[in-house]
Amino acid sequence: MCGIIGYTGNRNALEVILEGLKRLEYRGYDSVGIAVGNHEIRVYKRRGSVSALESDIRKTSLSGTIGIGHTRWATHGEPSDRNAHPFLDCTGRFALVHNGIIENYQEIKEELRSKGHSFTSDTDTEVIVHLIEDLYEGDILKAVMGAVSRLDGSFAIVVMAAGERRLIGVRKESPLVIGLGEGENFLASDVPAFLKYTNRAVFLQDGDIAVITANSWKVLNFGGEEVKREVTDIPWNVESAEKGGFKHFMLKEIFEQPYAIMNTLRGTSSLYLRTVDENDFERIKIVACGTSYHAGMIGKYVFEEMLRIPVDVDVASEFRYRERIREDAIYVFITQSGETADTLAAARIARRMGHRTIAITNVIGSSITREVDEVIYTNAGPEIGVAATKSFTTQIVAIYRLAQHIAEVRGLAAHDDLWTELRLLPRLVSNVLQRHSEIEDIARTLKTAQNMFYIGRNISYPTALEGALKMKEISYIHAEGYPAGELKHGPLALLTPKTPVVALVPPDRTYMKMLGNVKEVAARGAPVIGVGAEGDEDLIKYVDRTIYVPRTRPIFYPVPISVALQLLAYYTADMRGCEIDKPRNLAKSVTVE
Ligand code: M6R
Fold this sequence. Notes:
This protein has about 600 residues and is of the alpha/beta class. It folds into three domains: about 5-240, Aminohydrolase, N-terminal nucleophile (Ntn) domain (Glutamine Phosphoribosylpyrophosphate, subunit 1, domain 1, 4-Layer Sandwich), CATH 3.60.20; about 250-425, 3-Layer(aba) Sandwich (Rossmann fold); about 430-593, 3-Layer(aba) Sandwich (Rossmann fold). Helices cover about 35% and strands about 20% of the residues. The strands form four sheets. The protein has an eight-stranded antiparallel beta sheet, with helices on one face. It has a seven-stranded antiparallel beta sheet with strand order 5-6-7-8-12-13-14. α8 (about 255-265) runs antiparallel to α16 (about 425-435) and α18 (about 460-475) runs parallel beside α21.
């Protein structure tokens, strides 16, 4: 989830690119770089902010009317000067910026190394520009086409070549947009990057190659044939463009989940973890806070079912001050930001006790990465809304991958079908997102609620906890998550016709029990919103409203169901006029105890 801007025209490219990068930086990036030059390409890049780069550049005589720029959110290689984009090939003739993940970069790197290429960074990106150099026989477009046909993974790239007036952009599963100006054109990952200059845009599709000059543009497919793409007039101002046209960052981030999950799956496709590969252990201990704790609770059900290993899950602030007994366990710390004070403290304690430790986090170079032995990155991209959405579902996906990996290392019964189905999750999530209007309609019924319950059993219990957390933190409705079997031990006393209940009823081994619980709450007059699997006709008989999610394996339901519950919370909060991206009293990163 990096930011890309490319420019070709008659203005000073440096100014246009710096302006574009500032417009992209709102998402919170860790390093930045720029390449400009009509005959000779000059690159300036560094760790840190756009303004830091700008003050470096102002001391130089960098000029030109064509260039590319990049703000980086690290995936491969820590945030550093040398890992910042753009990258040059060995000859300094080509410069490239990239957004996404190249899965087969190691293999390509080895091949290019054997041909004499040398690399300056730890990134997956750098191989692309060397591949272009390797394939170049006088036509940059052909070289780029040859290079991208070798790449597995997701990418939006923009390439410039010394002495060329054209920029080439390629999109595969990562956004790239052409901005059309008068005597100037742009290529960017996001519209805000060029909105100051033009509101005419061409949104590229997967498999598109864009070639732009100051006065022309065209789009080709990977086979080199020209394809037609519509020009769109963008009605957004800069502020709404930053949100991709969505009303709030939270909604944008909810809708980014298919892509974010795909990135998690890609980034974790071949894990190597000494902690589990070279060590025997009898237990898994998971420690986290808030939403990440809920992901950890889902992890308990996943690991216990898949691996038959006992799992304990602790809230980090509790773990810190409990008596701890040394066990033959590995520790898994889950934290989106990697900066949560209690989780960091818990990681230090576990290490001091001599345990092997793994972190699941979204932020490369964050503090947790220095406190543990090994890290699994979720690669969800920056999350700006305080409410965790894509960071949560990608944490769950990272947990599935860890379970898959441990199962393989331990030679446990192959679950090939299961792991094949795991790859379908992005599609399932897209399907839920397409039902947003139905969910919005159901949210109308919650607008005036003061109290709510979310109930579930088994792996849907932590999903219910997270659904309730989303609702309470952004809509300020008091929402409680409960294991459905616990209702009759107290909470049933609170149910009235004014207490809506969201019941999670996917088809799993607790399905019949859940239907019993639904009848129980309906008998008290509570309105019930049932969340179940597509085609479950029985559910409709017992609930007032139904949200369907596509069918999948019981173990995977937390992902599509959570997306539906995020939308439900979002629309309810929006109808109540709440400040969704910055709920009162809350901060994105809790760096104090
Ligand atoms: O960055 P972390 O995952 O460690 O943050 C932990 C919690 O503060 C966080 O998950 C919080 O509960 C969510 N933002 C709520 O939506």
